[in-house]
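QA checklist item 7 of 12: single-chain prediction sanity check.
[x] sequence parsed
[x] length recorded as 212
[x] structure emitted
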Amino acid sequence: MYCDYFLTGMGYSEQQFSLPRWEDLSVSRQGMYDDFLRFMPTQGWMFVPLTVYYGGGKAATFEPLADNLLEYEWALAQYMGAGVSADWRGFRLYDTDETKALVIKWVSFFKKYRAILTSDVVHVRRPDMQDIDSFMHVNPHLKFKGLAMVFNPTLKHIQRYLSLPLYYTGVTKSANISEQENPPKQYSLASDYSVDVWVDLLPRNITWFLIQ
């Protein structure tokens, strides 16, 4: 018997996948963010309309993938980075060497950090498309205690500090934090177990921070 509590659409309605690609990605990220209050990442799924689903035509679909590289990478990054499975509805996952490289990049990222990416989520900043947004996976029992995904969906270059709440990582005094695969830096935790990391993101760009 199907039980919606154990496996569910992660914060979506069927109609949102007929929205233009950027709106679809933004609404979908908001939906996941909200549903992480109730579900672990592996309890839900999302959807990527590589080809026409209900409507929206060319503005809504990701095909041809080579012509929509930026949006396609965002789809790969936000779902792999959320640890949420997606239904990639279409006939292929890549159509050129460039799109194949994107698939390899984000699938490799997911495989490497699968344990933390499928762990519980702490909310950092809800997407509103006016500023950066972020969620963070946490698990005090792993080598990598946390992984924060940070998105800049705006058309402006954003440079500012972002506060990451590390209480549920199990780290108490100091943390080694690296941006992507760069060498880690040591941070002392504030009295509320948070640290401020510097975010420097160009328009419509993504980064992530690894906490040890």
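[x] summary fact logged: DSSP finds four helices and eleven strands in the chain.
[ ] second reviewer sign-off
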